[in-house]
Amino acid sequence: MMNRHLVQRLGFILLGVISLIVVLPILFVVGNIVVQGLGAINWEFLTTMPRHGMKEGGIFPAIVGTLLLVLGTAVVAIPVGIGGAIYLAEYARDTFWTRILRMAIINLAGVPSVVYGLFGLGLFVLFLQFGTSVLAGSLTLAIMTLPVIISTAEEALRAVPGEFRLVSASLGGTRWQGIRHIVLPQALPGIITGVILGLLRAAGETAPILFTAAAFYLPRIPRSLLEPTMALPYHLYVISTQVPGMPPRVQYGTALVLLTIVLSMNAVAAIIRSYFRRRREW
Fold this sequence. Notes:
MetI-like fold
């Protein structure tokens, strides 16, 4: 008995040490960005156009461009992703082809983002002739996030106990009525998690928008979906590697703004997820 408790305590200590090893570097990086970039954050930096080769002024077009790309990604990816998950979880039979489809979705989630960028360049920019634009970038990011949304939403739907579906059917409800009014509300916490994971990845990616949407220097907001835009991930890459003599505070300030947007999205998702989790009936 003593040996068992000793092993258990040693296991907890080891897990705690491993967690610290993982978390401390992340906290150090985030803290360094906050300390270095906080001095650059002011009203002018957030609301004005860049000037003098992006060494002065603000990053307003990059902020708006990032939000436009995330919004466009959400409009395309969320309905398609959740619809695909509902089909796979509730309607599709367990056949050879559905197993191949699920395996393909899982594999697509691990494809490097630069491959999606080249795919978007070939399909949306060149073949469909959308050009380098917000539309082409949003569609490329939507395709990149679909595997994450579909797989997590399907798992959330499958986690709902089958008794909920049986009760709905026994009361005379159709399959879709049971899914719409019972299964989906119970699976919402997991679905929201998948959606946010996909959108967070889209907000921070550089390679896909490098080929399809991002402009090197465009000190204005795009007037239509068929125009290019500045975006925070690509803008951060540009001012860090392509512009000599760039003040470090501008680089760290841009990184801090991007980090704040991502963390804010995560916080909002956590609040929504906890709200629906409290309402869950199992």
